[in-house]
Amino acid sequence: MKKTIESQLSARQRLRRIEGRHNPLVKELRQAFAHGERTEEGDCAIDGLRIVEEAIRSGLRLRAVFFRESAQDRAERLLPQIGGHVETLLLPDKLFDSVVPSESPQGVAALVRVKEFSLDDLMERVQVGPIIVLAGLQDPGNLGTIFRSAEAFGSAGLVLGEGTVGPFNSKVVRAAAGSLFRLPFVVAKRAGSLDEVSAQLAEREVRLVATSSHKGTPLDKADITGAVAIFIGSEGSGLPRGLMTKINTTIAIPHSPQVESLNAGVAGSIVLYEAARQRK
What we know:
By secondary structure, the protein is an alpha/beta fold. It has 13 helices and 12 strands. The protein is elongated.
């Protein structure tokens, strides 16, 4: 009982109460959530107890952690895991809820620095597993699912092409369940267009494989071992025609004819599993 009281007192002493919405860190958190992008300092916004713990476990640098006043029990759990140099702020419930977009906020959010990678970093890992290239994937849940499956089944990393939902969208971060913090990824607008990306991959003798909902070599008969990049298109229109001309092989997942196509997250996960199975 004494230890519990001491822990509560210690947590309260570390928390700096913020009343106003114009606090610089609160403004950064709000903008990062609103735009789904990194802040000028390079931090992204995350929320939820498990996601913040995943960020800590993944070794990310935390800039600030924000607690909802009515959820101080979260502070007692997290503060022992957070270094003393990290800002820890306590916000009134109304202010916290106006900043954090979650439909069911768990009372904790943070600004964290996610590692940045280049296309060269991914190419150095291509023998680990396939590179996943996403062209126009717009559903945050699908992208988060692919991040999670890519880590689970040993992908070299992801390339997010133009039109693909941003990786720092709060729904993507939640669906990725921590994999976003550990798996290398590149946003194509920084590494070049997908045409340039595909050319660089081909130059390094990486085979370009595209997924299709109908036509192509059945997945169980396709060879997706070795240095491979797997292209997955948008939920509605698939891969752009210009990009398809650069593809070496098209694969399809056999399924019942009454089902028009598989969800992009599910299809990507199945292909990643098959690639891992073949490698083993």
